[in-house]
Amino acid sequence: MEPSLEVRDVRKTYRGVVAVDGLSFTVRPGEVTGFVGPNGAGKSTTMRLLLGLDAPDHGEALVDGSRYGTLDRPLTRVGALLDADAVHPSRRARDHLLWMARSNGIADRRADEVLDQVGLAAVAHKRAGGFSLGMRQRLGIAAALLGDPPVLMFDEPTNGLDPDGIVWIRLLLRALASQGRVVLVSSHLMGELQDTADRLVVIGRGRLVAETAVPDLLASVSRDQVEVVTPQRSEAMTVLANAGATVTVQAADGIVVEGLPGSEIASLLGAAGVTFVELRRHRASLEEAYMELTRGAVEFATADEDAR
Ligand SMILES: Nc1ncnc2c1ncn2[C@@H]1O[C@H](COP(=O)(O)OP(=O)(O)OP(=O)(O)O)[C@@H](O)[C@H]1O
Known about the structure:
The protein is an alpha/beta fold. Helices cover 35% and strands 26% of the residues. A hairpin with a 2-residue loop joins strand 8 (199-204) and strand 9.
């Protein structure tokens, strides 16, 4: 059976506050799946439900088709980084991993292997209490990798990491996915996943907003927009707006034009004597795609509430 993470019609409330509502999605192996949504959208709650740290009020959260609590030697089935501070500060890094390994029938040598893999071999005998946030994140990742599980979940893994650490995480996630594992990584920053995720599960207010491949999402919002780089920005904006285009400012010397083909933009600017340095098809960033998606979600939520 292929490894998987699956959430089926899950609802979870905390004393009347709805954290997750009617949420369903499946995470496939061999890809990095980004799990995105604004703060409070329900990402951590969903991950906790998948790990059996909380029980859903309704629905099921499954690892390889089973509830976490029913898994034998669970660390060999699913690894997770949820909270970098989950390690007791007085515990030494290696001892922490050994304790976890022994509780799951995992060979001691794995503790050394994963410490090496995350770059913590030199501090294996130091207490976690003296670690920086970045080092604690790495220790949490080592713990997730300990049982060599086919399913991995990381909640905001780049928190506290420096730029080198962020690049390292991206490469690690890609490598884990290319080994055929299920990799779910949450972030509230869409841009962070731009070069990392193959697919996205987007949630807002505990509900699914989109479950999509990254290229499809980008294509759906890129529309027919043209980017114009010009030293005469305001003149260009006037000419193009007068011709019926929607024009938005992009950068110091750039505008994004919607509603006119590139060839017509070029001839309009030429006829008006407005110089431009570059004219190219605008490719939306993941951040822009996300803004568009969540705008839709807010409208949907409002309409939905009105209908009740
Ligand atoms: N243990 C809890 N007790 C009470 N409310 C909770 C609990 N856990 C989560 N919530 C609430 O559920 C909602 C979803 O929170 P959750 O932490 O899952 O969101 P998130 O998407 O992970 O956000 P962030 O990006 O800030 O981590 C929030 O309104 C939060 O306040």
